[in-house]
Amino acid sequence: MSVDMSKRKTDxxxxxxxxxxxxxxxxxxxxxxYHENPKxxxxxxxxxxxxxxYSVRAATPRLVSIETLRLYADLADEFCDGYMRWTxxxxxxxLLTEEKNIEPLIGKLKAAGYPxxxxxxxxxxxxxxxxxxxxxxSASDASGVVKAVMDELFPRFENMDLPAKLRIAFACxxxxxxxxxxxxxxxxxxxxxxxxxxxxxxxxxCEIPNVVASCPTGAIRPATVDGNQSVEVIDDQCMYCxxxxxxxxxxxxxxxxxxxxxxxVGGKLSQAxxxxxxxxxxxxxxxxxxxxxxxxxxxxxxxxEVYAKNARKFERMGExxxxxxxxxxxxxxxxxxxxxxxxxxxxxxxxxxxSLHVRQR
Length: 361
Ligand code: SF4
Ligand code: SF4
Fold this sequence. Notes:
- With 361 residues, the protein is of the alpha+beta class.
- 27% of the residues lie in helices and 19% in strands.
- The chain has 11 helices and 13 strands.
- A 5-stranded antiparallel β-sheet has the order 1-2-3-5-4, covered by helices on one side. Strands 6-7-12-13 form a 4-stranded mixed β-sheet, covered by helices on one side.
- A hairpin with a 4-residue loop joins strand 2 (42-47) and strand 3.
- Helix 4 crosses helix 9.
- It is globular, with a radius of gyration of 24 Å.
- The termini are far apart.
């Protein structure tokens, strides 16, 4: 018996997405023939029947006000029967069936201050986490860093002049609610020491078994310190993730003097030409320097410019680095190679080069 999922009633989770699909997508589901990117920010998908779906992609401030949402909804009502969606990188995409509505929509978006772009070989909106606005465990701000970086890279949003698409992500701690593990350039805020335990208050504020269980690396043990029932942290096992701080405010990790930002490169999700790749460390520490984070902006801009100048057409950041080799990458970018770049994870040995073949620089 087949079940019509769109009519299924449940009080668990979101409603089935099918009921929200535009009619043109429902009619062509699984039957799209090809798509094109006629200009920055505009895509056209063509179905086997000849149906066309136009998408107009605009940047959002990511944390959006109710006024912005109302504006998007009004534009969607005016130009595309109310159909719009959010991309995984926090752009808004209007889904049109009438080609003649594209330019008037773009005109209204631009007049309201929302640039159109982010498709093809460009830098799209930077996906990011909560930062100081919301999350207690953040090692840096999210919106602030992203605003400073994107202000500098903005022309790359409106132009498709890079070798390939370039995805940038930001996460404000290594729990990485952002997509930092799989982005071409990842900006990752880091704590740099183990939690400082408030032994006098821990037992009254937190449940010790929960605190012990919260640690993914098993670095926390029950302990009696100065007569207080508390916990101890084994420094060598701690990866400064702040999971324990999430369940126990007496395990403080935030530190304005030592928290900072690391930068990673070469991740991607796409299956095209190469299997998906994880981001790898490029710069272990850049100071946390609000309100404009100039050191982070310079570092990201340098990576973008060197990649733009040296990569081949269609080559993603990780594919380019794999072709030229890491020594050449460090030469070209001027980034210092340090002991922190050596992978010392338990299973890292399996990824080391064990042959005598060396790559000529
Ligand atoms: S990345 Fe970390 S600090 Fe940022 S929102 Fe997620 S859990 Fe909080
Ligand atoms: S910061 Fe993370 S790894 Fe370190 S003790 Fe807390 S939970 Fe464990």
